[in-house]
Amino acid sequence: MTVHESTLALHGGPPALRDNDLPTWPVFGEAELSSVHDVIASGKWGSIHGDVVAGFEREFAAYQDAAHGICLANGTLAIAVALRAAGVGIGDEVIVPPYTFIATASAALFVGAVPVFADVDPATHLLDPHATEATITSRTKAVVVVHLAGRPADMDAFAEIGRRHGLAIIEDCAQAHGAAYKGRRVGAIGDVGTFSFQSSKNITAGEGGAVTTDDDALAATLYSLVNVGRVPGGGWYEHASVGYNLRLTELQAALLRAQLARHPALQDVRERNATLLSQALADVPGIRLAPENPDVTAHGRHLFVFRVPELGAGSVRDTAVKALAAEGLPGASAGYVPLHRNEALMREARAIADRLGQPYPLAELPAADQVSADTIWLPQAYLLGDEDQTRAIAAAVAKVVTGLRAAL
Ligand SMILES: *Cc1c(COP(=O)(O)O)cnc(C)c1O
Q1: How far is CA 404 from CA 3, 62, 127, 319, 322, in A?
Q2: Is domain 30-258 given the CATH code 3.40.640.10 in the classification?
Q3: Per UniProt, which keywords does this protein have (predicted)?
Q4: Which pTM does this prediction carry?
Q5: Could you tell which of 77, 83, 104 is best to mutate to test the pocket of ligand 1, judged by most ligand atoms within 8 Å of the CB?
Q6: Side-chain-side CA neighbours of residue 227 (13 Å)
Q7: Which residue of 82, 209, 258, 403 has the fewest C-beta atoms within 10 A of its own C-beta?
């Protein structure tokens, strides 16, 4: 394709897509409308009285190959609760990737622990097991592994690290509903899995979250943390531990049940379109896609991620994102600012370590810095179109990268 920079919509050329060329999210229909209606009509709006949350918890846990699932308010507090259930507390170190949503690290701060960063693999954007092991100290208690974009991390390696060093392995599955590693869905491969049902996620109720585990004792602790310290089957004013109230409403669970039923068919569409996009973009000079990995037996397809190393080196990655918006892809994103560059987070992490007289371990994180400068992603909603829409998206991406690369 020969594209001159001047033909970019950013510079006044005709945009590659029109508004109605894009699929939208959320996808919903009669099932969502009628199930929410039924909950309202029942007058049982809280899970204390209804059985819709309990029903969804069973269905969702089974979907993720987990023995237990407990719903809660959101995916951020899901990680905090998972850490607390795993015994992580004041001054303990929790290893997290620097290239993820801020909640992965802030959750450690919420339980008084210190988030410590280990670098990612630049080819996949995922936490690197070798870097993780090199970051372990006598204070390390847990690792939060993120299945970023929906791509499962190397769970065999992390399970082995957990065993060898006696660490809890928490899976942040906020972007990985339905994703599978070596044939097993994520969520209970490690000790606890955490999920989000916030508006952008592949299963949503606007807000919401869940924790999953195979461990009966952890499940009981998680239940208590979500339910003001109550124990399953215990008395109303019997608080066996100190817990939060993080319960989901029946209305949210009604939406989630309908969304869960929809998920397999939508995942097939996302998978087909992600494959189409990958094929269309694989040979476009300047675009680098993550390599295929046979251990990833189902990709969650939350984000379509690619790198543009030359545009990054030429400091025009952000221009490329603006150019994509101008072409008709306003959902294109420059991705995360790496968390070790977030002042607020670093200030709090250091403050906890300082108050306890502990050193704060901060390694160089060159891969996180690199990928944060040259990554672009498209949201999952863009993977829900038909073949023509998907080809138009691919053409817009190729046009922008080719045009800006020619102008470097
Ligand atoms: C969305 C997200 C969260 C937080 O979930 P919320 O429900 O928005 O609190 C945590 N981790 C990752 C990787 C996420 O993408």
Answers
A1: 9, 47, 30, 9, 12
A2: yes
A3: Aminotransferase, Pyridoxal phosphate, Transferase
A4: 0.97
A5: 104
A6: 23
A7: 258
